[in-house]
Amino acid sequence: MFVGIRVIGRVYAVTDQCRQRSHRILAGGLTQPNGIAREDGALRSR
Q1: For a designed S-S bond to 4, which of 9, 10, 25, 33 qualifies (C-beta 3.0 to 4.6 A apart)?
Q2: Bridge-partner residues for 46, per DSSP?
Q3: What total of structural domains would you count in the chain?
Q4: Does residue 43 carry a pLDDT above 80?
Q5: What is the span of the domain harbouring residue 32?
Q6: Which of 11, 7, 13 is nearest to 35 (CA)?
Q7: Interval 23-36 mean pLDDT
Q8: Does residue 43 sit in helix, strand or coil?
Q9: H/E element holding 5?
Q10: What does the alpha-carbon distance between residue 13 and residue 9 come to, in Å, rounded to a whole number?
Q11: What is the pTM assigned to this prediction?
Q12: CA triplet 13, 9, 19: central angle to 5 degrees?
């Protein structure tokens, strides 16, 4: 799952493996991220 936090300008990838959730920052320093874009099977920041 991908989550954009508009207030702090970050997009996270959230994963769940064996009922253990983790997250990592995919992009930071954005201006109110509210969606994601895919191009050729890859995530792209816009």
Answers
A1: 33
A2: none
A3: 1
A4: no
A5: 2-44
A6: 11
A7: 84
A8: strand
A9: strand 2-5
A10: 14
A11: 0.63
A12: 25
Confidence of residue 24 (pLDDT cuts 50, 70, 90): very high
Token look-up 């191009």 returns 39
Q: How far apart are CA 24 and CA 38, in angstroms?
A: 18
Burial of 27 (0-12, 13-18, 19+ CB in 10 A): middle
Query: How far apart are alpha carbons 18 and 30 in whole angstroms?
Result: 31
pLDDT value for 13 = 87
CB atoms within 10 A of CB 28: 12
Question: Taking a C-beta distance cutoff of 8 angstroms, is the pair 26, 15 a contact?
Answer: no
Q: What pLDDT is recorded for position 32?
A: 85
| Cα 46 to Cα 36: distance, rounded to the nearest angstrom | 8
